[in-house]
Predict the 3D structure of the following.
Amino acid sequence: MIDKHPYIVAVVSGALFGATAMLAAIAVSAAPKVATDSTPLTSADLSAFGGAIVGAIVGGVIAYFLQMSALRAQKSEREQKDRQERQALAHALVFKMLSMVNNFAHFKLHVEECQGRVIAASGHTENPATYILPIINLPMPVQLEPAEMGMLLSLGDDRALNSVLETAPIHNSILPVWAEYAVLRSEINAMMPPLIDMATGIGEVAFQQGSPVAVKFFEANQMAQQLIERATRDFAEASDTLKALVMLLRNKLGLKVSIGDVPARSASDVTA
């Protein structure tokens, strides 16, 4: 009741306080008269009653304003606490989105560097399993918390909500693909060591058609092609989602965060 109708509560409290004070004053003033000889009330008694009434009214008004001041202070404190909690959730969500975008940027840069080396050496990009190197130190999956999604839902932008919800599963689903690709490459190398040019990193493999190593090579080749396609698409979509999210949080919550372009860095620290 107090949270939903604070002004009504304040008015009723002030009125009850004033009425109680007035009745108490009248009862105290009239009690001696009635108890002794039932003498009619004099002008002095009426003056006392009037003073009691005025005092009750003043007391009620003071109680009303004190109650209103306390309610306003409580409301302001609740709003400030709620705003701080929402901003903390917003910062956590932006940090997670930024981590995913940076990871996608590493994947994209790694693929581009591998392609750049083979194009510079031979100009051919067939059979990507021969030149797309595995990534050893893969990042950890990112989990979005219900509280963070609830905060984003409350902002009323369904498009931003859906985009953020889709980004985390896409990010987490590509990590096992890179891990499995590394395993396949290792198994192929163990079964049929390739001839590698140490200057360019380009290798050649020879195997019989339909042999186990041929099947594994086909799987690795298809997987490498998927990683190439996903690297560009995932980064572009996640980057757009992050920019839209930051703009929404700046407009709705006053978040002082700005996102620029992801700096170009070497992928050598995440490749084998």
Summary: The radius of gyration is 37 Å. The chain has two domains: 6-78, 81-270. Helices lie at 6-36, 43-121, 146-154, 158-191, 212-253. The first strand starts at residue 195 and ends at 196.
